Structure formats: structure tokens, C-alpha cells
Prior knowledge:
The structure holds 2 protein chains of 2 kinds.
Chain A: E1 3-5, E2 10-14, E3 19-21, E4 24-26, E5 32-38, E6 44-50, E7 56-58, E8 64-68, E9 73-78, E10 87-94, E11 103-104, E12 108-113
Parallel strand pairs in A: 2-12
Antiparallel strand pairs in A: 1-4, 3-9, 5-6, 5-10, 7-8, 8-9, 10-11, 10-12
Chain B: E1 5-7, E2 10-13, E3 19-24, E4 31-37, E5 43-50, E6 53-56, E7 65-69, E8 75-79, E9 88-95, E10 105-106, E11 110-114
Parallel strand pairs in B: 2-11
Antiparallel strand pairs in B: 1-3, 3-8, 4-5, 4-9, 5-6, 7-8, 9-10, 9-11
Amino acid sequence: AQSVTQLGSHVSVSEGALVLxxxxxxxxxxxxxxxxxxYPNQGLQLLLKYTSAATLVKGINGFEAExxxxxxxxxxxxxxxxxxxxxxxxCAVSDPFxxxxxxxxxxxxxxIIP
Amino acid sequence: xxxxxxxxxxxxxxxxxxxxxxxxxxxxxxNLYWYRRVMGKEIKFLLHFVKESKQDESGMPNNRxxxxxxxxxxxxxxxxxxxxxxxGVYFCASSQERKGLGEQYFGPGTRLTVT
Lengths: 114, 115
């Protein structure tokens, strides 16, 4: 069975500050990992994904995440927050050898302080 | 290219009534998924279609939920009879590739409220 833990249901950062959203996973097999973002009244949009290639993954809108097997983590970062980054962020895991279904964390709502 | 669309965007029904949610995937996507998010909790997998066949329905809560995918195109999710705990946001997603490599494209969701 797989699971995802996102620490912090709400995170606030000042505009221009570092964004760090935490994600830890549990999986019996090497997983595929994803970060999705949901803006108000929209569907989830893929930010980036790790599928066993490079451990540092770059995504859209300046976000990146690093897969750390020893820490079972896949934290999402962005060097400088922008007001448009305000949204809810979801970390997810899938089993590359099984079904393609995604197992999600509970989400982190990011607020940007002007 | 049109994205994944879902109808309706909101639905408010009384306990015991029936509701049917519809999802139109991106054209050409064989994989179609349904997920649900109950308020404050994680988004949970319900089921997965490959074309018109149910590949995995392990996440369906009970037999009050019935999903179909006619001709491998659009899908419907019927809840009959609805209970209070069925309230939440129902997401549909579609993808083209297998084995987790393909991005799942999500629709905006249907917010279901059972009163």
C-alpha cells in the first residue's frame, strides 16, 4: 500500500520569499511521484513528476522538487514566491508496476503575503 | 484541444435522491479515472476505465455507486440513493499512456452536496 503525508495544511509566505511545501511518501516499491496544483474553480494541473530519472525535477512556473529516497521525501520548492502562486498543492504517488491510480496527500493551501 | 469537462459543476440533492455526474475526457484518451475529495480530506481514487472496460474499481465506496463508460468515450457516475456522506467534490481525469508515465489531466470537478 502507498501513502502520502503533506506536512502543513496551510502555509503562508511573503512575496519574493522561498516556498517550501513538504511531502513524504510510503511505498513498498520505487514510486512515481507527482505534484499537482489547483487554482480556484479549476481542475488539478500537473506541476512536475518524478519517474525514476533525474532526482531533481523541474516543473512549470519555476517550481522544482527533489526525490530523496533515504528520507522518503519529495518536497516542492520555488526560490521566489509570486502572488499568482496562491493555490492548493497536492503531492501524489503511484505504483509504476501496478495500477496507474494516484494516491494523494491531504493538500497544502499556499497563501502569499504581499 | 478541449480539456476534461464535467457536468454539472454543482449539484445539491436531498438524501435518498439519485444524481448522475458526467465526465467527458480529452479526445483519444483511453484511460479515464474518477476520484473524490470529501471536505478536508485527501483526494481518493474511485475507479479506472480503459476504454469501456473497468480496469480497477477498488475505490468505489459501495454498491450505491455505479460508473459506466459508454463506447469508451464519456463516463457517468450515478449515486443511488445518495447519503449525506457522499457529499464532496468528484473529479474526473483522463490520460493517454499506460504504466503511470502519462499525465492525468483533471477536470474542474463536480461539487455534490447531499442534504
